[in-house]
Amino acid sequence: MSHSSGKGRRWLYCEFLKEVGMRLKIPQLTIATAIVFCHRFYWLREYDEYLLQIIAAACIFLAGKVEETPKSLNDLLKVCVLVQHKSDEDKRLVLNSFQNFVQEQRELILRAERRLLHTLAFDFNIEHPYKYLLSTVRQMHSYRYISEDNTRDLAQIAWNFANDSLRTTVCLHHSAKACANAVIYLATKFMGAKLCLPKEWCAELSMDEVECEKISNEILDVYESDDRKTSGDIAHLLA
């Protein structure tokens, strides 16, 4: 599969999982876990467009159990239908009224969950960058590298980059700590002149600057597509 088609596929299931999760009021950590499950699954399995949303639904269903924020399959199914057909209310009502359709979708999701479990080899150990991100930003404040106001701004911007990085596969190739360092590095570039960091701040925080740049470039790839230009701020972050 080409790089562009792979990115397009990831965009589809990431957006689907994000919207389903938000409508179900699922915590961000659970949504992130569901997305990583989906990345892992499609890293090992062939892509099937027909089953994309079924696999994604199974990922968020399993993630809810793993992160101890479970949702009932019936509630999940209703929201999945809503998201899939949000522009066609009549179709949603018809589909949800057909017991055969509802039962078929339930069975497909449960079957996909079993396939997911075997593909993941029952390995649910996922570490996200969020805790490392917050810890390092607090450390930067304690070292007086950044003011209190800038601490909040830096943490929020880095958090946003961490969320956006889920649309890439950096989580499959780099540790959560390395990803946290990269989004902080990226956030400092984004804030630019607002920060007055010492020259060796990366080294003093035991951050590998070369690795941060590498991962940052992988994350920046998510903002680029054939049909729209990257924003000016983002495009020149690492120039």
TrEMBL record:
SMART domains per record: CYCLIN
Tell me the keywords, alphabetical order. Cyclin
A single MF term (Gene Ontology): cyclin-dependent protein serine/threonine kinase regulator activity
Name the Pfam families on file.
Answer: Cyclin_N
Q: Which GO biological process categories is it annotated with?
A: regulation of transcription by RNA polymerase II
Record keywords: Glycosyltransferase included? no
Q: Which InterPro entries match?
A: Cyclin-like_dom, Cyclin-like_sf, Cyclin/Ssn8, Cyclin_N
Annotated Cyclin-like domain ranges read 15-118, 131-221
Q: Where are the transmembrane segments?
A: none
Q: Which family does it belong to?
A: Belongs to the cyclin family.
Its name, as the record gives it, is CycK CycK-related cyclin family protein
Q: What species is this protein from? A: Ostreococcus tauri (Marine green alga)
